[in-house]
């Protein structure tokens, strides 16, 4: 695949996930009797549009994601109390369902992507054994001569059989030269190697620079959907645990902005269909999870206010809620810019 095609595929994939998110809001709003004024693919000036019922369907100039405009939902909008199709005039539980439908659609899309991969080219899953995965360039593992697929039998004389055992042993030797007993290859061609390595000292934790090995798993058509559901739940739990460790300070947060995500997708597109759609699956899970975080301006923040209203049967002051959403939006844009400039672009300059 050429770089141009890979870039187009990456942009379309992310845009499609965002459009699916907005489609969740749209379908739930229509199901609840709300009036949807516009469903746009992309942002900016409208290039092409048609009307079906009360909704204008549009394709806009910047084809990056999209949005849904529901009557009576915009901050400060003048809403007629008699307008039964306005978002603001609906019961709190219906508004809750409309907001929740966006992340739910990303979750459903992730399940279907996982099922499709399992039933076709396969879906990679973490290998629980003590095998070496992808190497990080320039790190001790690459310098020592390790290769993806190597099985590590012992670390400094201590036998290891599982990935968790391997990580634990390596983390115990920051900055100290140790020897890895490595099995390379299978069957009669297998080699036994003793490779010296010095883990980097990362605040008292040894790091060598390789990821967990993974294996390609396929399922029949009947089992693919159930397994896709289970693997998506496992991916969701893994991402939630990683966020928890980052927020608690137990693990350094490695954030990627739009540039980093696009770069990873382009790299995945070059590596093949399976790798590319596995990344799309991971991003779809992340979109579902991130949008549920209780942060103003995100769906999760809106759900908090609606949950309060459902429990207390009192609406939060509209000005207070709108102000908090505005502050949250500005903070998220600032974080996005910071991650892009000091994360994505800094990594690009460092190469």
UniProtKB/TrEMBL annotation:
Gene Ontology CC: membrane
GO molecular function: metalloendopeptidase activity
Record key words, sorted: Hydrolase, Membrane, Metalloprotease, Protease, Transmembrane, Transmembrane helix, Zinc
Membrane topology: Multi-pass membrane protein
PROSITE patterns named among the record's database cross-references: PDZ
Regions that span the bilayer: 104-123, 276-295, 323-346
A Pfam family reported for this protein in Swiss-Prot or TrEMBL: Peptidase_M50
Superkingdom as given in the UniProt entry: Bacteria
Key word Transmembrane present: yes
All residue ranges annotated as the PDZ domain in the record: 110-186
InterPro entries: PDZ, PDZ_6, PDZ_sf, Pept_M50_Zn, Peptidase_M50
CDD domains tied to this protein: cpPDZ_EcRseP-like (cd23081), S2P-M50_PDZ_RseP-like (cd06163)
Gene3D superfamilies found in the cross-reference section: 2.30.42.10
Localisation: Membrane
Gene Ontology BP annotations: proteolysis
Cofactor names: Zn(2+)
Segment forming the signal sequence: none
Family statement: Belongs to the peptidase M50B family.
Protein name, entry field: Membrane-associated zinc metalloprotease
Organism: Anaeromyxobacter dehalogenans (strain ATCC BAA-258 / DSM 21875 / 2CP-1)
């Amino acid at each position: 695949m050429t770089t141009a095609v890979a870039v187009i595929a990456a942009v379309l994939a992310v845009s499609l996930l965002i459009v699916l998110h907005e489609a969740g809001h749209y379908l739930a709003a229509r199901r609840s009797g709300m009036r949807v004024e516009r469903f746009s693919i992309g942002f900016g000036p409208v290039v092409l549009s048609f009307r079906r019922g009360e909704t204008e369907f549009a394709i806009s100039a910047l084809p990056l994601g999209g949005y849904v405009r529901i009557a009576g939902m915009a901050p400060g909008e003048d809403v007629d109390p008699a307008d039964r199709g306005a978002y603001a005039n609906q019961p709190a539980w219906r508004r809750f369902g409309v907001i929740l439908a966006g992340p739910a659609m990303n979750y459903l899309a992730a399940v279907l992507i996982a099922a499709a991969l399992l039933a076709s080219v396969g879906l990679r899953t973490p290998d629980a054994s003590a095998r070496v995965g992808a190497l990080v360039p320039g790190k001790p593992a690459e310098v020592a001569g390790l290769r993806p697929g190597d099985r590590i039998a012992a670390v400094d004389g201590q036998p290891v059989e599982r990935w968790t055992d391997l990580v634990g042993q390596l983390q115990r030797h920051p900055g100290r030269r140790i020897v890895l007993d490595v099995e390379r290859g299978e069957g009669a061609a297998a080699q036994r190697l003793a490779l010296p390595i010095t883990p980097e000292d990362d605040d008292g934790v040894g790091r060598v620079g390789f990821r967990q090995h993974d294996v390609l798993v396929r399922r029949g058509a009947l089992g693919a959907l159930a397994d896709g559901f289970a693997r998506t739940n496992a991916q969701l739990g893994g991402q939630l645990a990683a966020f928890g460790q980052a927020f608690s300070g137990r693990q350094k947060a490695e954030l990627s902005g739009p540039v980093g995500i696009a770069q990873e997708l382009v790299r995945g597109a070059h590596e093949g269909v399976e790798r590319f759609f596995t990344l799309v699956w991971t991003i779809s899970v992340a979109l579902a999870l991130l949008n549920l975080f209780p942060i103003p301006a995100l769906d999760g923040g809106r759900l908090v206010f609606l949950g309060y209203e459902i429990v207390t049967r009192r609406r939060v002051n509209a000005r207070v809620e709108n102000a908090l959403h505005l502050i949250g939006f500005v903070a998220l844009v600032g974080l996005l810019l910071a991650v892009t400039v000091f994360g994505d672009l800094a990594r690009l300059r460092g190469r």
